[in-house]
Amino acid sequence: MGMFVISKRFNGEYKFVFTSRKGKTIFTSISCKQKSDCELIIAAIRDNVELFAFTKNTATSGKYFFRLSKGGLVLATSRKYSTELRLKKGIEEITKYAPKAETLDFSENDFVFPDADSVFLEQD
Q1: Does the reported pTM lie above 0.85?
Q2: What is the enclosing helix (H) or strand (E) of 92?
Q3: Is beta strand 102-105 parallel, antiparallel or unpaired with respect to 3-8?
Q4: For 1-124, where are the E strands, in sequence order?
Q5: Pick from 81, 33, 72: which is nearest to 53 by CA?
Q6: Which of 52, 53, 5 is nearest to 29 (CA)?
Q7: 53-105: per-residue pLDDT in tens?
Q8: What residue ranges define each of the domains in the chain, with the CATH number in brackets?
Q9: Which superkingdom (predicted)?
Q10: How far apart are CA 11 and CA 9, in angstroms?
């Protein structure tokens, strides 16, 4: 099953990614000023993924990607795929698993893993 993961960008704004069952990022959202904006977009995707448009594109490198949009507003951009078939499978993964996907929120954690030096100091 896929998963939505909310985090903070270095500039303090929020974003989310949708990951595959294997943990690979499928798409990354636009920047949002508020975490609640990410949560609203995630809820909309989860509840009505069929209302979103998937626009397929080709990068200058020849790789394929898509943009997820609604009402003309681009909300996310996918990772790059080496073939059109993989791109299609990425889209299928969203439509199949997004409605059941969990949401993880890492936006409040500055550091997911403690600093290695402090761990060693605590053990001494």
Answers
A1: no
A2: helix 84-97
A3: parallel
A4: 3-8, 14-19, 25-29, 53-58, 64-70, 73-78, 102-105
A5: 72
A6: 5
A7: 999 999 999 999 999 999 999 999 999 999 999 999 999 999 999 999 999 99
A8: 3-123 (2.30.29.80)
A9: Bacteria
A10: 5
